[in-house]
DNA sequence: ATCACCCTTGACTATCCTTGACCTTTCTTG
DNA sequence: CAAGAAAGGTCAAGGATAGTCAAGGGTGAT
């Protein structure tokens, strides 16, 4: 029953704590600082981020290199609910159904009005102009990608 | 989670502030003054202007050398920017180009951050999963539809 | 004991920013 | 004009970050 937590685990928990403590949905931090805080090499941070803070687990990471670089770790919303929706969709979906889902996500407050509007536009048959089967499969991929990134 | 802005970022923001505060569509300033204000070498100003205040992001810079020289930074009209982008697109466009355009539209303030993120996602090769030529044509339709509806 | 699967480390790479020496253009003055 | 002063421009080197990858280290299951 000795130190049951690997360094990666500790770092994961620390980051999640920071995410809870902030008022925003994200934190911005320097990779090298995080590494120094845990007395490890910077690439360890990259490892933790790429194995744990991924869309499938409800997170997204954006970073910038060079002087003034940073890492931004963002928590995505309502992962569970979106998972279930994802199941429902399967791998093909009509323009109408897609529009409805986007509309519902908007009503649920998970998508802003402009976002919903632009997405609806790009999911329409007029813009896609593809054979129905192809279009429906593509739409399914688009909506699923959307759900995993909200 | 400090303010983490590079000098270049600060200068960019400062210039944008000046542009907002003036009644004109442009500002006229001396490179050396700007440099002194930020305690840096003048060529740093040139760097910021050439990486951030470019037509693709909705700006144009005109300058004159010699005694009495100046730099004039102008914000393009929305219509100019959209026209220019539409030209650039034509009827086929790669994922990378599409992502850049969306990013620029965001930096130009015409798209919110969320919108930009979702659009970038839906324009990616990973989501489209179509033959390159088909994908590039579709992307062109999507981005043009977007531009038309901004 | 061995295998599989993480985790950890560090050398190398990619990207972005900052600085300074040197160049070009325009104006002012004699 | 010619020369000097007063701008802005170019470019390459170096600094500050973050990313990639492959080799090696634990640890638990078989």
In words, what does this structure look like?
Two copies of one chain form a homodimer. Helices cover 59% and strands 11% of the residues of chain A. Chain A has two domains: 69 residues, 2-Layer Sandwich (Phenylalanyl-tRNA Synthetase, Chain B, domain 1), CATH 3.30.56; 71 residues, Non-ribosomal Peptide Synthetase Peptidyl Carrier Protein, Chain A (Orthogonal Bundle). Chain A is mainly α and 150 residues long. In chain A, helix 2 crosses helix 3 and helix 5 runs antiparallel to helix 6. Chain A contains eight helices and three strands; from the N terminus they run H-E-H-H-E-E-H-H-H-H-H. In chain A, strands 1-3-2 form a three-stranded antiparallel β-sheet. Chain A starts with 6 loop residues before the first helix and ends with a helix. In chain A, a hairpin with a 5-residue loop joins strand 2 and strand 3. The radius of gyration of chain A is 19 Å and the shape is elongated. The interface between A and B is medium-sized, with 31 and 29 residues. Chain A binds a DNA duplex (30 and 30 nucleotides) through helix 3.
Poorly predicted regions of chain A are none
Q: Bin the strand percentage of chain A.
A: 5-15%
What topology, given as strand order, has the largest sheet of chain A? 1-3-2
> In terms of quaternary structure, what is this?
homodimer
Shape of chain A: elongated
The percent of residues in helical segments of chain A reads 55-70%
Q: What is the residue-mean pLDDT of chain A, rounded to a whole number?
A: 92
Largest interface: A-B, 31 and 29 residues
- Secondary-structure element string of chain A: HEHHEEHHHHH
Largest sheet of chain A: 3 strands, antiparallel
The name of the CATH topology of the largest domain in chain A is: Non-ribosomal Peptide Synthetase Peptidyl Carrier Protein, Chain A
Radius of gyration from the alpha-carbon trace of chain A, in angstroms: 19 Å
Calculate the terminal CA-CA distance of chain A, rounded to whole Å.
39 Å
**Structural class designation of chain A:** mainly alpha
Q: Give the count of structural domains of chain A.
A: 2
């Amino acid at each position: 029953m000795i130190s049951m937590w690997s360094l990666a685990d500790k770092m994961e928990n620390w980051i999640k704590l920071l995410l809870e403590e902030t008022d925003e949905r994200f934190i911005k931090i320097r990779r090298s600082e995080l590494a120094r805080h845990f007395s490890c090499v910077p690439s360890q941070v990259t490892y933790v981020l790429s194995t744990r803070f991924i869309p499938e687990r409800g997170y997204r990471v954006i970073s910038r290199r060079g002087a003034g670089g940073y890492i931004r770790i963002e928590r995505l919303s309502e992962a569970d609910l979106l998972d279930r929706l994802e199941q429902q969709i399967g791998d093909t979906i009509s323009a109408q159904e897609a529009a409805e889902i986007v509309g519902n996500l908007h009503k649920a407050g998970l998508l802003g009005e402009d976002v919903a509007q632009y997405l609806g536009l790009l999911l329409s048959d007029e813009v896609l102009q593809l054979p129905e089967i192809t279009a429906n499969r593509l739409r399914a991929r688009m909506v699923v990608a959307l759900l995993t990134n909200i």
